[in-house]
Amino acid sequence: MRDLDALLNSLVNIDRNSLVAILASEAEAAKRLVNSARDELLRNVPSDTRR
Fold first, then answer.
1. According to the model, what pLDDT value does residue 6 have?
2. Which bin fits 38, alpha (ψ -120 to 50), beta or left (φ > 0)?
3. How far apart are CA 9 and CA 46, in angstroms?
4. What's the rounded Cα separation, in Å, for the pair 49 and 46?
């Protein structure tokens, strides 16, 4: 929780364009992580049980 408080405090004076850039970057990283996890799960599922 302390890390979240520090993050929120650091964002108080950030300009809108910088915040949008940070959030877009984090969203892209999250999307890559989800896709990687999904691909890994699919590699471990027998092919006859896939949809």
1. 82
2. alpha
3. 47
4. 6
Q: Are 42 and 50 in contact (CB under 8 A)?
A: yes
Domain residue limits at 13: 2-49
Q: How confident is the model at residue 7 (pLDDT cuts 50, 70, 90)?
A: confident
* Model confidence pTM above 0.85: no
User: From CA 43, how far away is CA 23, in angstroms rounded?
Assistant: 30
**Number of domains forming the structure of the chain:** 1
Tell me 48's DSSP state: G
d(CA 42, CA 2): 36
From the centroid of its chain, how far is CA 15? 21
